Amino acid sequence: MPHRTSSPWPWASPTPTARELRDRYPTLGIVVLTAQGEDDVLFRAMETGVSAFVGKAAPMEEILCAIRHAAVAASSFTAAGLALAMARRQSTAARLALSPRERELMLLRDGVSIPAIARTLYVSPSTAKTYVSRLYEKLGASSRAQALMAALRNGLIRCDAATA
């Protein structure tokens, strides 16, 4: 039976449904038709085992190709713009190459204070503050909220990790 999930809210994602369907029916072709064309949505769809990812504004031929692909190659993935999205991800990863210390600073996602970060990393509060400042600079952020959004957008942290 076809399953349709559609939501105007950006935090409501078809990927949990897709993952559940993929787990139950490994040979089922799954096509995500979405208004959200962001790279992170595309990559989440790919990671959950979706067969094809296509934008709602795509030409009918592209939508039909996605459906055909899902019907004959359910366990593989296709999406228009996948190569460009992969290139953007690699470019961003290179630009945002974080040091191991900066990666540890993703404690920020849990609302941990600078003194608590300092204690966790066994550094002084001023050193922790310097690390946080450098991280903000690399992410192009001026606040914790901006840094978290940039980290999510650039794949440095996962949405499920950010809300856990």
From TrEMBL:
The keyword Repressor does not apply. It comes from the Bacteria. Residues 91-155 form the HTH luxR-type domain. Pfam families: GerE. SUPFAM superfamilies: C-terminal effector domain of the bipartite response regulators, CheY-like. The keyword GTP-binding does not apply. One of its GO terms (molecular function) is DNA binding. Residues 1-71 form the Response regulatory domain. Keywords: DNA-binding, Transcription, Transcription regulation. GO terms for biological process: phosphorelay signal transduction system; regulation of DNA-templated transcription. This is Response regulator receiver domain-containing protein. It comes from Lentzea atacamensis.
